[in-house]
User: Fold these one by one.
Assistant:
Number 1:
Amino acid sequence: MSSTSIGLVLLGAPLMAFFVALVVFRKNHLAAMMTVLLSGAATCASAVFLLATKGGTPAEQASRAWIHAGGTSIEFGILLDGKTLIMGTVVSVITLCVQVYSLSYMSHDPGRGRFFAFLALFEWAMLSFVYSPSLMQTFVFWELVGLSSFFLIGFWYRKPSAIAAAKKAFIMTRIGDVGLFIGLILLFQTAHTLDIQTLNTMSVATGNFDSGRIELITLLLFVGIVGKSAQFPLHTWLPDAMEGPTPVSALLHSATMVAAGVFLFARFHPLFMQAELTLTVVLCVATFTAVLSSTMAMVASDMKRVFAYSSISQLGFMLMGLGAGSLFAGYFHLTTHAIFKALLFLCAGAFIHEYGTNDTVAIGRAGARKLRVITLGLIIGGGALAGFPLLAGFFSKELIIHSLHDKPLFLAGAYLASFMTAYYTFRVIFLVVFPNQDSAVQVEEPPADSHDDHHSSSLPLHAPILLLTVGAIAVGWFGDSIASVLGLVAYHPSLPEMAPAIGVALGGILIAWFDFGRKSAPQTGFISKLAPLHTLFKNGWYLDVIYKKLFVGAAQAVAGLLFGTENHVLDKASDMLGQGTLTIGETTGKAQSGRLPLYIGLAALCFSGAIIALGLEMMR
Amino acid sequence: MSHPELFCPEFALLLGALLSFACAAIGTKARTAWLVSLAAAIITVGTSALALPYQGHPFATDIYAVDSFSQVLKLGISLALAFAIAISQRQDSTRASARTEVHFFFYLSALGMMMLVSATELLTLYIALELSAYGLYILAALHRRERLGSEAAAKYILFGAAASAISLYGISLIYGAAQTTYIPAIAASGGSPLLIAGVVLTLAGVLYKLAAFPVHSWAPDTYQGAPHEASTFLATASKVAAVGLLLRVLSMAGGNTEHLRTMLIVVAILSMSVGNLSALFQKDFKRLLGFSAVAHAGYLLLGLLSFSKLGAAAAIFYVLTYVPIVVCAFLVVAAVSHNGANPSIASLAGLYKRSPFLGLVLLVAMFGLAGIPPTPGLAGKWFLFSAVIDAGHLWLVLVAAVNATISLYYYLLVVKAAYLDPPGEYPDIKLSPTYSITAFVSVALVVFMGFYPAPIWSMASSAAAVLF
Amino acid sequence: MTLEGALLLGLMLFSLGLYAVLARRNLIGILIGIELMLNAANINFLAFNYFIPTDPAVAQIIVLVVIGLAAAEAAIALAIILKLYRQRNSVDVDAMQLLRSTGAEASNE
Amino acid sequence: MSELPILSILLLCPLVAFLVTLVLPESKATAIKAVNAVAGLVTLVLSVIVWAQYDETAGGYQMVEDIPWVADLGIRYTVAVDGVSVVLTLLNAIVFFTGVLSMWTLEKRVKEFFAFMGLLVFGVFGVFISLDIFVFFFFYEVAVLPMYPLIAIWGSTRKEYSAMKLTLFLMVGSALLFPGLIALFVESGGQTWNLVALSEPGTFSEGFQIFVYPLLYVGFGILAGMWPFHSWSPIGHVAAPTAVSMLHAGVLMKLGAFGILRIAIGVLPLGAAYWAPTFAFMATVGIVYGAFVAMRQTDFKYVIGFSSVSHMGIVLLGLNTLGIDGTNGAVFQMFAHGVMTALFFSAVGFIYDQTHDRDIRHFGGLVGQIPVASSFFIVAALCGMGVPGFASFWAELLVFIEALRVFPLLGIAAIAGLIFTAAYILRVLGQAIFGPKNPDWDHLVEPTAWLTLPRIILIAVLLFFGFAPSVMLDMIGSVTGGK
């Protein structure tokens, strides 16, 4: 099979699944099965591509013209190089896992036909995004993944909170998109092409672009990344996005879609490398985000929210790696994170599904550790996230920290963030594994994600978790293969180089043990002793409130002002013009008073006036 | 009189006049008199159409010209006459005692108008002017509600006589300045200031016929107070004759048109504005049409003040297309009128249901007056405006177009009443065959001219070619 | 007597006539004013004819015809005024207020 | 001429439907509807044929028919199509056909409704294919006036006021066009009204162009919903019945933009260049303004009405860039917006017909009660947000590309407008289509097959050009040279 036809399967199957599922959405079972089957086909296709490649083979592109603009044509098709192959495979595999998981998880939801349709839409959009050969295609599908995210977050459309979260996600990412869009157009006008390979080739050779222009463009692209990958200051939509069903959180809002921003950065790594200023901005934003969101994760009681904050923080890590110049470090972490974070969410979903609550303490008290497979998954995934030695996250995070070795400030931030990561991850693990029935902790939040009281622990639920658990253990060891596919050489830090990071991670775990794990632990965490900090973290640094007051308020005010302008100025003006005309008309009409002398008088006046005027004119 | 055939339209009219006078003298039934005069009117139309290509001077001296200018306008006048007489089938707004006699006055007046458009000598012109007015003065007085009729007629005649006196004074000045009464000779005499002053004063009587500012005030009152068919005739034939008269009078200025043009611009703007603005508040449909007639006089002046062939042709085109459009409007008036009372706008309510065809006729009339295609109103305005811009007055077109917008408001109010308001207790209307045919013919004429203005335009253009 | 003098006489007569038309309340008075205006024009015609040598017949013909027309006009006007008087017992011009823009439907009273 | 005069046949279709409708008695409502539906279908087929027959590589005006109309004055019935006309003709046919189908349930004064509608469509076709300024204006006025009875008779909220306001606004536009258009004829020497001849460079001096251009731009712009002369448009939308809203936003507003493109810019390029920054600024204000005002509206149709102001702002911005991509985008946006708004109004109209309520606050979770009908609305909303996969995405993209090049600041402001566009559209979706169920509307029923068909057609068109934009751009590009 040629790569074109495989590509057709890869991108066509999910699209077909979407349309089929949409048409038969009332027949839930059929829609679900179709989606999973077609998604399996796409996964196979991506795997075929990956396996067929050897390290360092030149990129292959199959595309055809899509539209003509700016005197050139823009292509649509697939590009096969190291980055797309790895990301594409990760996306398709995790999508398949999540879809299989959803067969069980969503089995009793009346709207699951629709659910699978949008999962398929997402898969199509995400794969088309990843394999895109041109920045235009990238943008198109960047938007479409955002759209599918909107529908999936708002899947339970009866819940006002879900709809609000979906709206918030869409609008906040769109703010980023506007930046990306402008950046894209500027890039197009600078380089006269949107072909990714050409752009990257051009940017490697210096002197092709004006450096100020490149900095502007990359900054604008980074605005898009900030939106999509939920970095400060546009990160607040991601925790709210947890209103969607847990499989959605696993797939879109941790493993794949939010990583699109990071992927875009990696995609244009050569370009970003040309822009000093942008890289500094990226490092600042990423580090700050990683620390900021970790603080929130330390105090969140909703299990999904903890992982959501953690996603934000880990995305920050990836960008730190990339921003520091290490493509491999960032990309590797992207891969490992996708796997272990998907695993964590699937586990969380299983708990939530079983016990009908999102609250970690409540789940633990309900005896969650009895679900052994899932608890195991949670521990392995959590370990990987915390950077526990020899698990997947450990290797990638070490690489990132290593890439920061000559930037002490950011390195310190990274250490701080990874300390907190270890702390909050094991806080969750300990709360689940060693529940303390007597602790003073109150269950804070009402059950949220429980859509029915059906309990299932069937094969579709366990198989993906097991698979991902294995992945979370194993993928870390494949760093060299991944590097070779990317055409890079993996760096292996020596043990002394790794020691501080290991120490920080273990320290975090130790304190978590002290606070939550040991017998008679208070299970409140050390932060709660610092009440103001606790409140600050708990409320997400009040950013939501500030945004609401500041930006939403401002927009509302402007809207109100313009609304008033429309009604009381513009519209009124035309009404008054009409009314004025009518009033004049009434006057002239009334002047027609029926009095003959007045009629004749008017005529006489006018004619004598005309004669006098004429006479004066003649005399001049 | 060397070529009697040149007089055919006039002869036909004279025949009609005699026949209707005979009917009146014998005292036939009103219906018979009506049939006779309708037949004569149709013959007149036919004769006028046949006489279109005629050219020549029937008298030894150059006092009476038969050329395409006069013949085209005569066709317009005879059409207006025929339509007015057709509308007078339902004479319930005319005083019962006058129903047999009334047609004679139509013919008399039409005869005056035909002479008017042919006259090329001042005395002939003045006689024709007076002759055309006498019949109308009497017609105006014949409303079934006598107080209304006599008041309308009294205002009409006293104002008219005053205006014609001013005109005559102007004519005396023209005579003094040019020492001749032949219009072509006057035009060639060079346009001295005294002559221009004379022309300005002469305009009083002419603009009076046209119902233009500042001698417009009679129009709404008389339209309202006269019987429907008389108003129809007044609104159509009178306008056609006035355009011809005005072109002749203005031609006397020779090349010296600068001051006249300035004055006419003022008159045109004021006519349009006063007419349209005052119409906004009218409740009586005929009165509204009266103000609308004032506004249209303003539009017509746009063509005349250009002093060009294009302008003259546009004015003639406009007035020719104006005839069937106004006939449509007055037909609705006459058909809706109950016991001869004037219909108010409100009484048009539900016309679409009471008589769908009449509703359509009204729609065509209002769109035509507003200048909305597929009526010739648009082409007419377009040509007029072309002439004005050609003469270099872009802003004047803007004023006129804004005026057209204002006028749309009250025309649409009429449409609204007919198409939106529920009929309430107003009865259904059954159109007589005559009315149906008349309506059909006029609507067909309007729509045909709207879609294909070329024939009328070439007529108007050839008429204008005589003067420029 | 010069041409100017004659024309001035005509103008004065015309103005007097116009004044009568505008100032008189009586319809007959107005009619008489109009007759004065017409005669002012007649004076002009004759003056021009007398002082400027052209075909002497023209103005005389005009004047005679105008006198005839004025008589006819006066006849019609008087008939109408008479009718008005019969209906209202008044020939006051201000009594003619039936036809006017009041917004009311005057004709359907 | 040996070939079939296909354009005249296309033009006559709605006229024939109009005449047949006039002849048929009021009682035969179904026959009247059928006649118009058939006429719509025939025009649709014909305009697809025109599209197919048009030679994109040759470009220029094709299928020319030229008959003298008023020969003395140089007025000729000259009809022809170029790439832009082809696109807009197709748009008109689509909206006509789907509009007729959307009014299938009409019961009130059916005969008159379809008669006026046929007249309107006739006028619109005429405008799109005329090359003679007089003929153009003739059809332009034919198209505008039937809006009055259509809204005033069959409309809803404050229908008489709205209809009058709309008509007067449009006539004020015409009042500006009158002197502007005629001045072109006179200034060029009074020989021809033909647009092609008048477009010859050097026909008009720069001073003249600068003087006359604003007359034409604003005159047409009023009909195109140009800020700040737009206030007739949302009011008209709100009052109009479904098919009329569809025609109004779908094609009528395009007449204005088309007039600007073909006459104002086409004949007066120097004037356009002089005024472009000013009008581009106003267009951008319109984009942002429309979006903000839409954010506060509570009536479905007001929201869409102001969204039209905003979207037409994009068209005008594109036109004012005077560049190839901008013009391509503007024309594409005319088409996309036409179809999208038709879908919007069709969807809202369906809901309104059953509920007689359009206040978005009174609804909630409609998608659960009438998923199919709601999904039409959702699709239109997505298209309105410029989501890729729908035609409007490409249109906006092209406009923004050019705008950012020519007017960087305005371009940024316009693109930022996308955020607010998303905000107001999501507000409606979140409030009415999603959200908690409102049991008041449990009784709503899904559209029948006949009512589904037009919406499916509209969606299919949006998707087709969303996936294959080059089909459209090749056609438009044959005029602008953007291939």
Note: Residues 3-102 of chain C form a domain with the Helix Hairpins fold (CATH 1.10.287.3510).
Number 2:
Amino acid sequence: MVDPLFAQLSTLAASLALLFGLLLLWRRNLGSYVDAFQSQSVVISLLFCVVGYFGEDPQLYGVALLFVALKVWLMPRYLRKMQQRFAVEREREPYLNVPSSLILAGVAVILAYALMRPVVALSNLPTRGGLPLALGLIFVGLLVILTRKKAFTQVIGFLILENGITVLALLGTYGIPLIVELGVFLDALMGFLVMQIFIYQLHGTFESIDVDQLNQLRH
Amino acid sequence: MSAVLFPLMLAGYAFGALAGLLGGRGSVGRWLVALGAGLGAGAGLGLGAGVIAGGGALVWSSPDLFGFAGGLQLRLDTLGAAFLVLIGVGAIPAAIYGAGYSEAYEDGRTALRRHPRQGAEASGFMLNLFLLSMSLVAMADNIFTFLFMWEAMSLSSYFLVITESSELGTLQAGQWYLGMAHLGFVCVAAGFMLFAGGDWAASFDSLRAGAAALPAALRSIIFLLALAGFGSKAGIVPLHLWLPMAHPVAPSHVSALMSGVLIKLGLYGLLRVSLDLLGGGPAWWGGLVLGLGAVSAVLGILYALMENDLKRLLAYSSVENMGIILMALGAGLIFHSYGLMALAGLSFVAGLYHTLNHAAFKGLLFLGAGAVLHATHTRNMELLGGLIKRMPWTAFFFLVGAAAISALPPLNGFVSEWLVFQALLGGFQIPSSEMALIMPLAVGMLALTSGLAAACFVKAFGITFLAIPRSVPAEQAHEATPAMRAGMGLLALLCLGLGVLPFAVVPLLGRVLAGIGGLPADPVVLTFNLSLQMPAGFGQMSPSLMAVGLVGLLALIPVVLRMLRVNRRLRLSDTWGCGRTGQTPRMEYTATAFAEPLRRVFTQLYRPTKELTIDFHPESKYFVQSIEYRSQITPWFEKVLYRPLLEGIRFAARMVRRLQSGSLHLYLLYISLTLVLLLIVARWL
Amino acid sequence: MSILLDFAQGVLALALAPGLVGLVRWFKARLQNRRGAAPWQPYFELIKLFGKDGVVSNNASWLFRAAPYVVFGSTLAVAFLIPTIFAPQALGGVGDLLAVVYLLLLGTFCLALAGLDPGTAFGGMGASREMTIAAIAEPTLALAIFGLALEAGSTNLGQIVAQTLGNPALAVTPGHLMAFAALFIVTLAETGRLPVDNPATHLELTMVHEAMILEYSGRYLALIEWAAGLKLLIFFALLSNLFVPWGLAVVLTPVSLLVGVAVFIVKLAFLAGVVALLETRVAKLRLFRVPELLSLSFVLALLSVISSFVLR
Amino acid sequence: MASIFKKIFKTGLVTEPLTAGDAETVELVHAISEQTRRLLGRSLAIREVDAGSCNGCEIEITALTGPVYDSERFGIHFVASPRHADLLLVTGPVTHNMQVALVKTYEATPDPKLVVAVGDCAKTCGVFRGSYAVAGSVDQFIPVDVFVTGCPPEPNDLLRGILAAVGRLPGKKQAAARGGQA
């Protein structure tokens, strides 16, 4: 009745998305962050199509297109521009070192599984396998924001978190109405733009995009 | 059979103890002590083996002795018998070894120094008393007997620890040990009191019968008290502090006994109370034990890696191995609580097997470390090296122990770690997802532990025995005496035997817990082709065939190479050092350097303190006269847990000291006030 | 009969091992726009080394001379236990996947001791690094095994293979893919390939595996090099045959065995190409960033186990 | 990531094929691969010893391993330890500082072994002759099989020198065998 392929593909896509999120915790140079984010967005847009095809909701193709335009093309483009401008900056000394944050991410995903257990057990959606992974991705995004020092990385972390929410919504409800989706995208775009301005300001003031520098403002 | 063996055991220990008191110095006295201890331990071993093999439980009681507390009551069931066997396995080689090792104490010398100092005459007596009290702990059948023997065991081992009391730090280590032992004793006693409702004389049978009627919260409190009390003996992190202090300063055969046998009795107590008397509990009991075990295992081996004192390293590694055993037991308790009896049985067998194995290889390693200490008068690995050429037998035996503890096939550590892995892998059958998700983490921790253990023992063996000697004493080292070699040889054989013949041992261990706490008999069956196979359905492996294969290949390779007419000419030459003129020991990798990468990997845990002093030339700072670099690691639990505790105690002690004025009148006042107060309390309250 | 075939497949693995090393080198040479030596070059090197005299340090003990035999013997023992052309049947009960891991650890252990034995700084350095990497790679290995065992219900290699063969959908589950990725990273670490260790380095300070064997010469060196090649082959065989078991001979007829050999060689060549591509692309990681890579593989393995739990 | 591989495939093989260049080299190279195949099982491990050279020779030796000359295709490769080596490639005049090291390296190399001294300095001490730092030419300290002259010698000369040394090997092998029996 329900195509097992659907379950397979959606879980696969969700876990790939999570993998790209983890890559963010592992790498240090800002350029690879953009790559990871872009690849993740590609996977998610494919997920939109998969859900659209199996869930028989043609509207989702449109959302996928929008998603591609925004997150595969537009945002990475600006991110790259920004990254080239701050090319010297690397995520040298995060608050939490790489192995610890990776293992913490692993624990966060376990937590996500434990939290989603009742939901997964109750639901009979074919996509339920991916739900904990999406929640895990949200946690990973939070972890990036919390543990990394560069404002740039935090923007990426925010975008990853946003992607996680998108995946969760997509897998949980087969896509929310287009109009809501549009609003969310607009929100994300606005957030992105605000943070972009913030980063440029930060760099203008401190010659660095280290958020640590903000501590200086206390005096 | 048991009617003969039990008195024989008592008689053997009594004889050994008397010989220790009266036999005086000289080799006759030493051998008489060893004979007594060996006889007692051998009889105990026979007794235990007989009970496990199906001889029926031994019951003995003497209501008149200590009649006020219900009398001494002994009963040897299979669980106790397993630990009696363990005592025998550890004690016989240690006794033989001790006969040779104690020679160092003649004329009041100590192993650490060459010069005569104040000696220890009573150690033979204490050794026998220690073995006897341990044996009787495993046989105790009422609260009084258990606690009495437990205390006797702690005290006699305390006296053994401070044998070399003239050495700096020995007494302090002894005090730590005594303090921790009594802390544990208080917990255990409190647990039993709650269990029995204050009845000192309650027999274990009555406890078992009443356990089901206890409220759940009380049962959990009893369990926690037992875990803390027995855990302090077993060396669970953070109660393990006494192990790296007391083990190094004790005479080496005593260290072997303490590490191989004494701390295992903590496990015995834990199993006895939680599984047998309480009849198992909720899953979180097991989860707690598993978690503590995992933490102990990883932290134990991580701190062992950083040690340069050979015996301290071994002591920390004991913490690690107790952690592994506790992981198995914890998994067993979890499975037990979910009614997965086959898996529970497997876990307990794995834990017991590792207990036995640890007694064998850790005993062996401590004896080997003792031989090194005996020959070089130092435990500092940075001063050793090159001993493989000077003490070939000791080196070989130590290598066997090191390979066994690193779980390398075909030795015994491999088999028991394999069983623990198999038990943990069975964790997916747990219905509760929260508990089931713990299992992969436990597997990861166990694997990390075993990898780090291999690194640790490459360091322990490689730095101590290989390359060129780093000091004069190491250069002048001599081989251990025949008695010491015999003791080590026995244990090395045991390591091999337990590794190659698990199919003979595992069914017996399966019988140990049969029927206790509702476990089925014989959880691990023996299949036709000598391999271990679990009815719970996981892996299959045959260490004996693997051993045969490895030996066969090792024999075959040179033969094949010779048949192929491979060039076999060899020339001796200097070590290649990029053409530098000579080689000195200072060019070798040191123990500290060996562990440095891991110290950097886990630096967030170790948080080493660094201190760099550079002495410049007075004329110019471009000429350095000396550089001194110090780095130290203080275990965090010492920093976080014990330091505040000790400060609190010191503060309290200072407060109490105010009472002490030295005035006789004041003391008389205290006494009178107390008397009056007591009278008032007794009359009206 | 089947026991003879089991041994034959181990011997075949042994025979193929130098060729695999040569193939990786050939691929790499081509990617460096060089002509490179033919893939069978390592065979010539081994023959030459077997013909040369040995030089042994006069500080070294018997352990130094025994270690190459133990390293070679334990690695060869593993070759008899793993599925290369088909899943071993008679020998299948001798050791499972865990036994394989520990047998390989035995070789590492002995080699590390042998590195310390002559008393050089380099040998000690290599031993220390090798043991560090082996220790922190161990959890990933164990968890990847857990993931595989969970699906197959057994740690027996034959059963794992049979399970995936019988259930092709398993091969593309996220758990399976992540376990594969984790095991691939561990393969790079354990066999001393590039981001972790550079097999072609001449600079002692960057060495891991090479530093331990700087003292070896003649037939000892030949045995160690051969064993290292065999270890690479073993990991490749595990990667290819446990995750993509198609092509393994299920029935032991001459034709299926031949097909098995052919498919196995193709799989090896594919993995050799992947490793060569990777080694061309990446630079060696600093030693203290290796734990970061291995913690990534650990998290992957952990996720694979967890997703297997949920999808079970 | 993609760009580097695009570059690699666009560049293609740069190793000079055996048929290119002057006839002498071709012959030589053929001869080398024949010789090494027969005598050393087509595998020759070289340990380079810089006994005090100006590094001019090293640059040429490095070129030998590069993509253009690619000595690896003949089974000639450089190793990190003299224990692994069959041939020592010694450059420069022997300085006092490197004198012991050179002898030690020779001693550390297992038999049968060869020594090729590279560059004019190795033979005559070159412009460094008479310097207070120089102890002498290479053959004063270790037995040299072949001298390769040139300042610095070209990679082709190096190959020729290696070949000549390999040609001397059979005699050495027999001598070693006789020595072993005695």
Note: Chain D has one domain: 22-31+38-181.
